[in-house]
Design goal:
Order of helices and strands: HHHHHHH
Number of strands: 0
Number of helices: 7
Oligomer: single chain
Largest sheet: none
Distance between the termini: 92 Å
Strand content: under 5%
Radius of gyration: 35 Å
C-alpha cells in the first residue's frame, strides 16, 4: 500500500470536526444568550424593586394627604384656642381632647377611602386600631373613661375578628 492509501481522507474528518466545532459554538452562544437574558431580567427586577420602594408617594398619595390633614386640623384647633377665645374649651374636656377626636375621625376617613376606592386599597387593620385608640383617648375627656374603654375593647375585638375572617383583605 502506498502512503496515499494509508492516509485517511482529510476532508471527511475535517467535516466531522468542523460540525462538532460548529455545534459546540452554537451551544456556547445559546448559553451566553440565555445568561444575558437572565442577567437582564435580574437587573430589571432589581430596578423595579428600587422604584417601588422609592415611588411610594407617587403610587399612594393618600397617606401623605391624611398626615397633612391631621397637621392642618390640629393647627387650626390650636390656633382657634389661642387667638379667638370664642369657644369654651372646657366643654370639650380641653383642647387636646378635641385634637385627638379630630385625628381619629381623619384616620377613619382614610380607612373609608381605602375600602371604597380600589386604587388606594391597602391593609387597614392597623390604621383602624390606631384610629379607635386615638378616638377613645379623645372621647374619654368628653364622656368619661368608664364608658369609653369598654367600647374601645369591644371595637378592637371586632377589628381582630374581622381581620382573621377577611385574611389578606383587612
Amino acid at each position: 500500500m502506498s502512503d496515499e492509501e494509508m492516509q485517511p481522507e482529510e476532508p471527511q474528518d475535517d467535516r466531522h470536526g468542523t460540525r462538532r466545532l460548529q455545534r459546540r459554538d452554537a451551544r456556547a452562544r445559546t448559553r451566553e444568550e440565555k445568561d444575558e437574558k437572565e442577567e437582564g431580567a435580574r437587573q430589571r427586577d432589581e430596578k423595579e424593586e428600587k422604584e417601588e420602594e422609592g415611588e411610594g408617594w407617587t403610587r399612594d398619595p393618600l397617606g401623605g394627604i391624611i398626615w397633612a390633614l391631621i397637621l392642618i386640623v390640629a393647627g387650626l384647633i390650636l390656633l382657634a384656642q389661642s387667638t379667638f377665645g370664642l369657644i369654651q374649651w372646657h366643654q370639650f374636656g380641653g383642647v387636646w381632647n378635641l385634637v385627638l377626636v379630630a385625628v381619629g375621625l381623619i384616620l377613619l376617613f382614610e380607612v373609608a377611602v381605602r375600602l371604597l376606592i380600589p386604587a388606594y386599597r391597602r391593609p387597614i387593620g392597623r390604621t383602624l386600631i390606631f384610629a379607635f385608640f386615638v378616638l377613645a383617648i379623645g372621647l374619654g375627656g368628653f364622656t368619661g373613661w368608664s364608658v369609653i374603654w369598654p367600647l374601645f375593647l369591644i371595637l378592637m375585638g371586632i377589628v381582630v375578628l374581622l381581620s382573621g375572617l377577611l385574611k389578606g383583605r383587612f
